[in-house]
Design brief:
alpha+beta, BirA Bifunctional Protein, domain 2, 3 domains, nine-stranded mixed sheet, 15 helices, 9 strands, about 15% strand, binds serine
Length: about 425
């Protein structure tokens, strides 16, 4: 089964069970100042969990389902290994309180809770022919009690004790996104050793001071990563061999001059991520979310270059992403705009990079102390425009350690430099 079919099956499954299908919201959150980018499916529904908005009025039901574009920057430097991604798709079903008849046979439009959420997740996974290895539930920590209800439901379904593991706040409690919002205990489903589905029972609201208050009505927020699901369904070695990346991989492999798996994965992730960010109207800049885009485009340029790819060939790569995704995400159809923004940024940065790299190789030998490493990196920045994060990336690749002292020294030099440029130098 291909990803196109899975999206369809998921949405049909929940539509049949009273859920209104809601399109993915933009990666640029329109009314959530707590985060720079959309990181979870529940984000566009936050106000329904808190009842600032009425789901019945807006959706005609208390149940929704979506496939949400998500972008997470926490692990950006890990991208390149087998599993980390910045951009991904999340399949989710949601229920907003008050809870009605929480019976999995109830295909109505009232709110549901743990029983229906768990039974349906189990049923959907089974319908795909997958076997669940084990599940986890919240074991209780501090003021939040053990989620006995979820535990019992899994037992009722037939899971023995050794397949229902208990976790604490770290593993089995989700949210909020940003610094405040709905959150709660989770139960997670593992297939082939991978956590594929996270069922969150939003029973709390965490305020800015980290304090938990009970929500007026508890709700359900589930999220299943499409890439991971496709990996277990298609039984591929990693997510990068699933159909989600295959077309792009085929094009890339024709263009590369030197094999390097890590760099290829960075290109898959950053190219796909930047296409989606640009399609949602983001431009590279030095500020906040614009800087996230700039950062991944710079990293993309670096890795394309090291793979020996002619940047003029970026068209083929962009088209491979757009062809794969634009039927489901029509905002991707504007090829010329997407190309203009991405290619524009890459081309400018490539010039900086070429000069910066040459100087980097000439200057940095790997035997300098922390202080002089910072000074040299700073020189590369001021004289060649080589951004620190790219210099650090090159250092990492060359196994040269960038220490706390180097970082502090760089920052001090940077501050002095700013004062001088502002004319404050006495
Ligand atoms: N919000 C939860 C997550 O992002 C479940 O959807 O994992």
């Amino acid at each position: 089964m291909k990803s196109e079919e899975i999206r369809k099956l998921f949405l049909e499954f929940f539509e049949k069970r009273g859920h209104k299908i809601i399109p993915s919201s933009s990666l640029i959150p329109y009314d959530d100042p707590s985060v720079l980018l959309t990181t979870a499916g529940m984000q566009q529904f936050k106000k329904y969990f808190t009842r600032e908005k009425d789901p019945n009025q807006d959706f005609g039901t208390q149940r929704t389902a979506s496939i949400q574009k998500c972008f997470r920057t926490t692990d950006i430097e890990e991208v390149g290994d087998e599993r980390h991604l910045t951009f991904f798709e999340m399949l989710g079903n949601f229920s907003f309180g008050p809870i009605g008849n929480d019976d999995p046979q109830n295909f109505g439009t009232d709110g549901y809770f743990k029983r229906s959420a768990i039974y349906w997740a189990y049923e959907f996974i089974k319908s795909l022919g997958l076997e669940i290895d084990y599940v986890t539930v919240f074991g209780g920590e501090n003021d939040v009690p053990f989620d006995e209800k979820s535990y019992k439901i899994w037992q009722e379904i037939g899971f023995p004790e050794n397949k229902i593991l208990k976790g604490g706040r770290e593993d089995n409690f989700w949210g909020p996104t940003g610094d405040e919002g709905p959150c709660g205990p989770t139960t997670e489903i593992y297939v082939d050793g991978l956590e594929i589905w996270n069922l969150v029972f939003n029973e709390y609201y965490q305020d800015k001071d980290g304090k938990l208050q009970k929500l007026q009505y508890p709700g359900v927020d589930t999220g299943m990563g499409l890439e991971r699901l496709m990996k277990v369904l298609q039984k591929t070695p990693t997510i990068f061999e699933t159909d989600l990346f295959m077309d792009l991989k085929n094009v890339l492999e024709k263009l590369i001059k030197h094999d390097d798996l890590r760099r290829e994965r960075i290109v898959f992730d950053h190219l796909r991520g930047s296409v989606f960010l640009v399609a949602d109207g983001l431009y590279p800049s030095n500020l906040e979310r614009g800087y996230i885009l700039r950062r991944i485009l710079r990293r993309l340029t670096l890795n394309l270059k090291f793979l020996g790819i002619d940047l003029e060939k970026i068209d083929d790569l962009l088209k491979a992403v757009i062809n794969k995704y634009s039927e489901f995400y029509p905002e991707l159809k504007n090829f010329s705009k997407i190309k203009e923004v991405i290619f524009g940024e890459i081309r400018i940065f490539e010039k900086t990079l070429t000069a910066g790299l040459k100087e980097f190789n000439r200057l940095i030998k790997g035997n300098e102390d922390d202080q002089s490493l910072a000074e040299k990196t700073f020189f590369l920045y001021t004289s060649y425009g080589l951004p620190l994060e790219i210099a650090k990336e090159l250092l990492r690749e060359n196994q040269i350690k960038w220490s706390e002292i180097s970082q502090q020294t760089f920052e001090e030099l940077f501050k002095k430099h700013q004062q001088i440029s502002r004319g404050n130098n006495k």
